[in-house]
Specification:
alpha/beta; TIM Barrel; 3 domains; 9-stranded mixed beta sheet; 22 helices; 17 strands; binds phosphoenolpyruvate; binds magnesium ion
């Protein structure tokens, strides 16, 4: 870690309040950690009286880098690597060249902007100049400029690392600030003990948003212009109860919010015994969506009846590798044993789309959400991985009195279900042969998240013990609008008449078969009180929700009178 560069104090830039949308409720405060390099170099306007300190911040950063290069030259010379030493000497010389420094300082004052932005703009000009040169030797100097600029940027933000990824890991209690939402960012927030999360992205059904809710990290999304006002290290309040962030809060704002610091979604009064019902007495089942076994206690303390969706792929994504059969079996056992007498649906790995990692699976298809993912992966190259997971679940369920289901993700055709069931039967035969205890009671369910599966719901129900409607993917596929792409989010409208037709079709067909009780909705729509009301009116009776959403969903159910609707 480099020394702190003087003059980086942005407190005097003043408080800025920005409005967004709640991803996960709660209130927290902490120093900002900018997750993406683009955010670090985003253009930020500074008042004219801050131009001098900003210029001094830049020259101090340059000085620091010069010292670092000189130090490296000494180290390398000691190690007798004269060629490398010559490169760093050349970098040092480039830094001493007043031209770049003068142009950056000039831009800071001419445009009243932050040093990072001024440097990036000047660097781009220089890189373009070198790139355009005919001489390949001079062309290659463009890369040297990039490296030099990155070193100064690192010094400016007082951290180490590379421009390609993030410079350092955030520390506990920081507020993560981002432009986009990647599952990796949410997992990082949890692993590093982030106090809160604030993002410009309004992809509220994206997996990152789902994880933030699951981990109960106060989070606000859809904050336009966030990147242009927040500097690394700025104090920031995330008031996710009201969907607001306060950057560089005043003493009064800090005092006001400190009194209200809030852990999201504390459990409601436990009501597992009597369950939930609408005002007219229609019984409703509420289960939990979990991404990690650690989330189970909160779900059950809240009184939820079981687990409608365990997204197991996050076990693999957090560790960067598929856990061994023994490891998986241990995790599933923990969840199943804690769910005595309850329903628990363990979804097999839905790896692919935005849920992949370089070490695990790299789907380089142009449109990975429609590529090889979920059951398509299981039934192609990764059959062993699927069978291992099934074996782990069947073994974990041995001797349990929980109602365990294996849930198959991203199913498109009935043949896929038939094939998957055959493989499950093969696993059972193998367990029989080896005399390994397992549960023969385990059910097999199908995620309904591809329109073809939704339309053929009767055929799916004929092959499945239960189905779970994944409205996140179903909606994105039905409306041809990527759930993670902010530019097309407006199309992902659950209340569009065509989508409501599809939702009605699913439950009507299930009702014709007398199997409404085998249908649960587990997409994020089930965690939205207003959409739960619509689905109850359509005939759905079971929802698997983000546990933090329980208070709102419960209230909506209890206020609804389905008989009055019909009158
Ligand atoms: C869904 O698609 O609605 C769903 C529940 O699965 P996921 O969000 O994990 O893709
Ligand atoms: Mg899905």
């Amino acid at each position: 870690m480099t020394d702190q560069v003087e003059g980086g104090n942005t407190e005097s830039l003043g408080e800025v309040i920005l409005k967004g949308e709640t991803i996960c409720p709660g209130i927290a405060i902490g120093p900002a950690f900018l997750l993406e390099p683009e955010f670090l170099v985003a253009k930020k306007n500074i008042p004219s009286d801050k131009v001098g300190p900003e210029q001094r911040r830049y020259t101090a950063a340059v000085r620091l880098v010069q010292e670092q290069f000189a130090e490296r030259v000494r180290e390398i010379q000691d190690a007798t690597l004269p060629e490398a030493a010559a490169i760093f000497s050349a970098f040092g010389a480039m830094l001493s060249d007043a031209e770049l420094t003068e142009s950056v300082l000039g831009r800071i004052s001419a445009e009243s902007v932050n040093a990072e932005w001024a440097l990036e703009e000047e660097a781009k000009k220089l890189i373009r100049l070198f790139d355009a040169m005919a001489d390949p030797y001079l062309q290659a100097r463009a890369e040297d400029v990039r490296e030099l600029v990155d070193s100064i940027l690192r010094a400016l933000i007082r951290a180490e690392g590379t421009q390609a990824g993030r410079y350092v890991s955030p520390e506990k209690g920081q507020v993560l600030v981002s432009g986009h939402m990647f599952p990796r960012a949410a997992m990082q927030a949890q692993q590093d003990g982030a106090a809160a999360f604030a993002t410009e992205s309004n992809a509220l059904f994206a997996h990152a948003a789902i994880l933030l809710r699951g981990f109960r990290i106060p989070s606000v999304g859809g904050i336009a212009g966030l990147g242009s006002v927040v500097f690394e290290g700025d104090n920031i309040i995330v008031n996710a109860n009201e969907g607001v962030v306060v950057v560089r809060p005043s003493a009064e704002s800090i005092e006001e919010h400190t009194a209200r610091l809030d852990v999201p979604g504390l459990p409601l009064e436990v009501r597992a015994e009597e369950g939930w019902a609408t005002r007219d007495g229609t019984h409703v089942h509420l289960l939990a969506n979990i991404e990690s076994p650690d989330q189970l206690d909160f779900a059950y303390e809240s009184g939820l009846e079981g687990v409608g969706l365990f997204r197991t792929e996050f076990l693999a994504l957090t560790s960067g590798s598929i856990p061994s059969e023994e490891k998986q079996c241990g995790v599933y056992q923990k969840v199943i044993q804690a769910s005595s007498g309850k329903r628990i649906c363990i979804r097999t790995f839905d790896i692919g789309a935005d849920k992949q990692s370089p070490t695990l699976y790299r789907n380089v298809a142009r449109n990975p959400a429609m590529g090889t993912r979920g059951i398509r992966r299981h039934l192609s190259a990764d059959l062993d991985e699927f069978k291992t997971q099934v074996r782990a679940i069947l073994r974990a369920a041995a001797g349990s009195n929980a109602d365990v289901g294996i849930l198959l993700p991203v199913v498109t055709t009935v043949d896929e279900v038939k094939l998957a069931r055959q493989h499950i039967e093969t696993v059972k035969s193998e367990l029989n042969v080896s005399g390994t205890p397992y549960s023969n009671e385990t059910k097999v369910g199908v995620m309904i998240e591809v329109p073809a599966a939704a339309i053929a719901i009767k055929d799916m129900l004929a092959e499945a013990d239960f189905v779970s409607v994944g409205t996140n993917d179903l909606l994105q596929h039905f409306m041809a609008a990527d759930r993670d792409n902010e530019d097309v989010l407006k199309y992902n409208n659950f209340e569009h008449p065509a989508f409501l037709w599809l939702m009605r079709h699913i439950i009507d067909q299930a009702a014709e078969l007398g199997r409404v009780e085998d249908v649960t909705v587990c997409g994020e729509a089930a965690s939205r009180a207003n959409l739960v009301v619509i689905m109850l009116r359509l005939g759905y009776r079971a929802f698997s929700i983000a546990p933090v959403a329980l208070a709102g969903v419960q209230q909506a159910i209890e206020r609804l009178d389905l008989c009055a609707d019909q009158a």
